[in-house]
Amino acid sequence: MFKYSKLAAVALIAIAAASTSVRAQDAAADPVIAKVGTLEIHESELKLAIAGLDPQLANLPDEQKRVAALSSIIDVKLLAADAGKEGLQDTPDFKQRLAFLTDRELHNAYFKKHVVDAVTPEEVKARYDKEVAAIEPEDEIRARHILVKTEEEAKAIIKDLDAGKDFIEIAKEKSTDPNKSEGGDLGYFGKGRMVPEFEAAAFALEKGAYSKEPVKSQFGFHIIKIEDKRKQQPPALDQVESQVRQLVMRDKYLELLEKAKAAAPVDIQDAALKTAYDAVNKPEAAGEGEAAPATEGQQ
Fold first, then answer.
1. Domain boundaries, given as residue ranges, for the chain
2. DSSP state of 117
3. Three-class SS of residue 22?
4. Which of 29, 143, 178, 196 has its CA 20 to 30 A from that of 12?
């Protein structure tokens, strides 16, 4: 899933504590909720801290999340203030890490603006239609079955069916399968979903027909009836919208990278790293099975 414009909690709060950025909200919209010395903690900072909480705390009640986030902010501001007094913000290591975190957050903000927020419902629908059109529909069937323990029981049931008795009623009365209450209905399924013996017998039957001989499997003996045959239906857009949206996001992201690399060619000095980088960034490698990047901070 995609998480936007977040740093790891400590890094994000440290940057917020060290900066004096102009707030988009006025005092009423972004109230002060606490003070650490002369430093104010605003509601907007609390929301950022909540978003950066450890995943283990995700299931806490909202009020407990707020308390945990506030505790984190207070701890950070207290020690950040002491770190500032020691001049740690002027050390080469800190400046290097701050530059890295700034670049990453700028990447995340750009990604959100030009990829996440730029995807339209029309683009998602168009990509869904494209993916559906590329699918070769497979055959699937809708079947019922009656499962019994012995071959003799199965043969007796087949005789009852030959005599005109109702398949559903027999299934409800005599089947040992848990779905007996539904008349043995297995719904629609394609190949590879059932045990081989059952699948071979089921797909060999015509619509409306039932097996004239018991079908043995590891579960017992089956009598199978085919209710319908059709081509497999693609999933509805609302069932796969998030996955399709990720495909659209991936394409937008890769397009942005291509334009950026064209403007600023990448030159990797380490030969081994260059070989590995080129291998994983070939167009076919980057385009297959790759989702758009998550933008949560990565240490």
1. 9-90, 121-133+235-287, 139-231
2. T
3. coil
4. 29
Can you read off the two tokens belonging to residue 297?
């901070």
Give dist(CA 244, CA 239) in Å, integer.
10
For 43, 52, 65, 252, the CA distances from 55, given in Å and listed in that order, are 21, 8, 11, 29
Greatest mean pLDDT range, 6-20, 47-61, 140-154: 140-154
Helices (H) and strands (E) in the chain, counts: 11, 6
Model confidence pLDDT, tens digit, residues 188-219? 999 999 999 999 999 999 999 999 999 999 99
**Domain boundaries 139-231, corresponding CATH code:** 3.10.50.40
Distance CA 9, CA 20 (A): 18
Tokens for 18? 């060290």
**212-240 confidence digits (pLDDT tens):** 999 999 999 999 999 999 998 899 999 99
The pTM score is 0.62
- DSSP states of 49-70: HHHTS-GGGTTS-HHHHHHHHH
Q: Which of 265, 276, 243 is nearest to 127 (CA)?
A: 243
Q: Which residues contact 127 (CB under 8 A, 6 or more apart)?
A: 244, 247, 248, 251
